């Protein structure tokens, strides 16, 4: 497992500047939130690659800003819009390929425009198949305002699509939807390939790690047992922390917990006194 931070935490700072500030803070893994098409022009992608080489920071995942139009473009009844949206996301997949990112974070259809689950899965499968051509995993995120917000829907997606569906588990979105993040992880198991993490309590549903009462270590121990290659990305809104030092502090806490879990997993079993 890898700890990381999303550039979305620093919105509305320009994407490459946010990436630079995270790298300067010693963060070694960052999810890239694309806020505009101009964020991924050739010169700006080159800037990101230069920063990756300079600081040794990696990008495991990309989150597109076009999520709000996916309902109309991918899940509507006009077939040319579906074709256009898939062609549009192809360009994102090509940028991801350049940057070495492998997980594409997908929101999907909003609940107010709900479609039949079979149709939803057919459209998702089309996009996921194109992603695979680029070596990209299109991963469905649980989002409270979307059809994907409830565990029952995600479970049905997995039943229909089998090994062709993967998930991003967002802790705060699970809480907002009235779901248990731990139960979601336990049920979806190895289909979960990426995590958006934050803490929560009666003070709020999107807090710095350690500021709430979420049992972070036990959640990550379960993640390590079912999907140990996942990146665990801190994703907060700008109002949920004071400055970048807060993000760095949560990142270090997360890295420390993950290191401890992995050391424990690699440790030899205790000797059996009866054999001595």
Structure description:
- By secondary structure, the protein is an alpha/beta fold.
- The protein has a single domain (2-266), classed as Divalent-metal-dependent TIM barrel enzymes (TIM Barrel).
- It is built from ten helices and ten strands.
- The protein has an eight-stranded parallel beta barrel with strand order 1-2-3-4-5-6-7-10, surrounded by five helices.
- Strand 2 (30-34), helix 2 (42-55) and strand 3 (61-64) form a beta-alpha-beta unit.
- Helix 4 (79-99) runs parallel beside helix 5, helix 8 runs parallel beside helix 9 (216-226) and helix 9 packs across helix 10.
- Low-confidence blocks of residues: none
CATH A-level architecture: Alpha-Beta Barrel
CATH class: Alpha Beta
CATH superfamily, by name, is Divalent-metal-dependent TIM barrel enzymes
Oligomer type: single chain
Q: Into which percent range does the helicity of residues fall?
A: 40-55%
Number of domains: 1
End-to-end C-alpha gap: 36 Å
Shape: globular
* Biggest sheet details: 8 strands, parallel, barrel
Mean pLDDT: 95
User: How much beta, percentage-wise?
Assistant: 15-25%
Structural class: alpha/beta
Number of helices: 10
Biggest sheet strand order reads: 1-2-3-4-5-6-7-10
CATH-defined topology = TIM Barrel
- Order of SSEs, N→C? EHEHEHHEHEHEHHEEEHEH
The value of Rg in angstroms is 19 Å
Q: Count every beta strand, where a strand is a DSSP E run of 2 or more residues.
A: 10
């Amino acid at each position: 497992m890898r700890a990381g931070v999303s550039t979305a935490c620093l919105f509305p700072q320009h994407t490459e500047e946010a990436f630079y500030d995270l790298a300067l803070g010693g963060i070694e893994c960052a999810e890239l939130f694309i806020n505009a098409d101009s964020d991924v022009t050739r010169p700006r992608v080159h800037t990101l690659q230069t920063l990756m080489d300079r600081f040794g920071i990696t990008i495991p995942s990309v989150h597109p800003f076009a999520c709000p139009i996916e309902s109309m473009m991918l899940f509507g009844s006009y077939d040319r819009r579906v074709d256009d949206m898939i062609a549009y996301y192809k360009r994102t997949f090509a940028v991801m390929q350049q940057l070495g990112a492998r997980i594409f974070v997908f929101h999907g259809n909003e609940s107010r425009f709900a479609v039949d689950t079979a149709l939803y899965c057919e459209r998702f499968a089309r996009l996921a198949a194109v992603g695979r051509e680029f070596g990209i995993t299109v991963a469905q995120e649980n989002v409270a305002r979307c059809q994907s917000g409830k565990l029952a829907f995600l479970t049905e997606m997995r039943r229909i699509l089998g090994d062709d569906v993967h998930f991003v588990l967002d802790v705060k979105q699970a809480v907002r939807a009235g779901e248990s993040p731990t139960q979601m992880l336990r049920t979806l198991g190895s289909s979960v390939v990426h995590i958006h993490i934050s803490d929560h309590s009666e003070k709020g549903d999107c807090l710095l790690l350690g500021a709430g009462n979420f049992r972070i270590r036990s959640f990550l121990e379960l993640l390590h047992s079912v999907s140990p290659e996942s990146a665990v990305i801190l994703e907060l809104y700008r109002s949920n922390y004071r400055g970048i030092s807060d993000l760095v502090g949560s990142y270090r806490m997360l890295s420390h917990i993950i290191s401890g879990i992995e050391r424990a997993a690699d440790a030899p079993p205790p000797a059996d006194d009866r054999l001595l």
